Amino acid sequence: MECIRRFYLGTDSPLYGTLLVYKGFFDLFEDFNGYVHFFLLEDLVDSDGNIKFYLPFDGFASPPIFIDIDDYLVYKKQVMEFIHARSHRIAEYANS
Q: What InterPro entries is this protein classified in (predicted)?
């Protein structure tokens, strides 16, 4: 998500080159907010459009692996909460 957010800002990230190949797709949503809204990902961003990271984020400086079991358990808990929140959001959308 952070790579996609940065892509819309025109800021470099580890996936910028790859995302640029699919610029036409991302242009369909106009901006990051449009992308988030279309895919019902509001539970992953705060009210300012910043990513709600599950673990501390250091700007892609460290490798994307868990340091220890505690990090994994925090991540797993956050993912499960996101799945439940997004499932609820999808159900509300489908019933509206």
A: DUF6994
Q: What is the DSSP string of 15-64?
A: THHHHHHTHHHHHTT-SHHHHHHHTT-GGGB-TTS-B--SS---TT-S-S
HSE-up of residue 13 (Cα within 13 Å, Cβ side): 18
- Domain carrying residue 46: 2-94
Q: Other C-beta atoms within 10 Å of 65: how many? A: 7
Whether the full predicted model's pTM is greater than 0.70, yes or no, is: yes
Q: pLDDT tens across 28-72, in order?
A: 999 999 999 999 999 999 999 999 999 999 999 999 899 999 999
pLDDT of residue 36: 98
